[in-house]
Amino acid sequence: MATQKLTDYERKRLENIRRNEELMASLKLQSMATQLSASTKRPRVETKSYKVNSEKQPKTQDPTVIRRSLRTRGLPPDAKGLGGDGGDDSVVKTLEYVDPKASARKLGPLSMRDVYSGVSDTALIEAILGVEKKPQLGLEVKGEFGGCKEERSSGAFILVGGVSCDLSKKLEEGGVESDLKVESLTLNEENVARVVPGNVMNVRFFPSTSLRMVVVGNKAGNVGFWNVDSKEGEEGGICMYHPHSGPISGISVHQDCMSKIFTSCYDGFIRLMDAEKEVFDLVYSSGETIYSLAQQSNNAKCLYFAEGRGGISMWDERTGNISAQWSPHDDRINSIDFNSENSNIITTSSTDGTACIWDLRCIDADKFESLKTIGHKRAVHSAYFSPSGRSLVTTSLDDTVGISSGVNFEDISMISHDNNTGRWIPKFKAIWGWDDAYVFIGNKNRGIDVISHLQRRAVFTLKSPYMSAIPCRLAAHPYNVGMLAGATGGGQVYVWTLG
After folding, report:
1. Mean pLDDT along residues 172-179
2. Is position 377 within any domain?
């Protein structure tokens, strides 16, 4: 076959290609590009993560989920629901009601093994049951805040006793100095793990001196456990269950009964994980959303939870029924917390823009009024008592963190802090540390801001190259001073310790 004759344009194009190749060869660009590409391909850092079971689980029928409008429930239109002040926008109420005709297996007890995402959870169960048998030592707080009693006088309430006059005066004046040096808190690479997939809604430490374990709940209904002391690849180090069908709104691990763990969900279910029976028992189901739950420190039998729009219910394990209900707010309650020195005193935060302090002994009174109301301009995401019970910290969508102290919490300071995380990350909630000196809250720069109670301002920021995401939810270990957990929207947990 005769060679095809090239046109002038094609000859010129080939000549340009040849000349460019010679130029690149003389400059050695190709070898340099190869070396650069190889140097940028760094090995990926592997973090601890939950294990997924490769074995297929038996298929079960999921409960039918029905959306219930306000009209079908006989309620007036909810104009406030159109606003953006309700708690976490990323976990708006989507699973309100579970059909009573759904399968008995889903509405009744769930075997832990059936909802476990792994091969074996034996090590986890043994660890929980083992720590249950060991005596727990309480945290010695500077100043010995124990033995407090409560007095009432002319409509005011005063917590007295158990602290020295000098320390009491310091608390009333706005804070105490701490022996803890926050700048000494460090984050080590081995204390980073991905415990669950997706947004973490709740994070808690086990209230144990011998077991350093974190439990978290995410947006998808998963509950994950991480034994921080476990070695890499050790079975039972990270375990994950799926007992709920929606966002986990609350986790409670009581210091007097750690083998029983309560979890609540936006789907209206409260389940009790019983490590001895190896089940997630259904203890309560509601046609309303459950937003938060808590327990008194001296009572492991009763559970308090926020239900529906502004209501609180008390469930008693001894009777298996609701023993009290009341409506302290006009809108959803985002947090519930008990005073450590007087279990009758409770605080709540609400989307109605207030955080209130109540006396449970006055629930049945003709006129149920709050002992103290702290107002914010927008929704209040959380309200927590300090370890001494003499101060309160609140977090609001109005970009403030409020600290209230004094005899009747009348000394209120509003500290500016950017709390608007957007739609995809759970809202920040400020927490106390191990004494009344510091408050900890995440920030959007992948750090944790430390606010001084005494100075009423941020004095330090915890940052680390190992913390690669925003720590939206925090928890301080109740016994190990300096042990702080931060959980993210990606399911990672970072545990800071004293260096």
Report:
1. 57
2. yes
**What number of residues does the chain have?**
499
Pick from 333, 326, 256: nearest CA to 297: 256
- Coil, helix or strand at residue 58: coil
C-alpha span between 264 and 305 (Å, rounded):
8
Number of folded domains that form the chain: 1
What is the rounded distance in angstroms from the CA atom of residue 65 to the CA atom of residue 174? 49
The pLDDT tens digits of the residues spanning 421-438 come to: 887 889 999 999 999 999
Type of residue at 128: I
Domain containing 487 equals: 122-135+174-498
Could you please report the per-residue DSSP string of 343-403? EEEEEEEETTSEEEEEEGGGTTSSS---SEEEE-SS-EEEEEE-TTSS-EEEEETTTEEEE
| Residue 402: per-residue pLDDT | 97
Give me the residues paired with residue 393 across strands. 384, 403
The secondary element (H helix, E strand) that includes residue 19 is: helix 8-27
Q: Write down the pLDDT at residue 173.
A: 46
Beta bridge partners of 337: 347
pTM: 0.77
Cβ contacts of residue 283 below 8 Å, gap of 6+? 262, 270, 271, 272, 303, 315, 317, 320
Assigned domain for 90 exists? no
pLDDT digits (tens, 9 = 90+) for 122-150: 999 999 998 866 655 554 444 333 333 33
Three-state DSSP at 125 gives helix
> Residue 236 belongs to a domain with what CATH number?
2.130.10.10
Tokens of 363: 């629930």
Of the given ranges (16-25, 231-240, 381-390, 486-495), which has the lowest mean pLDDT? Answer: 231-240
210-to-128, 138, 231, 467 alpha-carbon distances in Å: 11, 12, 16, 26
Would you say residue 479 has pLDDT above 50?
yes
Reported as type and span, the H/E element at residue 194 is strand 192-194
| Token couple for 101 | 């005709």
Do the beta carbons of residue 294 and residue 309 sit within 8 Å? no
Residues 6+ apart with CB under 8 A from 423: 89, 90
Q: Tell me whether residue 217 is in a domain.
A: yes
Tell me if residue 228 falls in helix, strand or coil: coil
Whole-number Å distance between alpha carbons of 495 and 187: 6
pLDDT digits (tens, 9 = 90+) for 38-59: 555 544 445 666 655 545 444 4
Task: Confirm whether 309 is domain-assigned.
Answer: yes
Q: What's the token pair of residue 205?
A: 């430490």
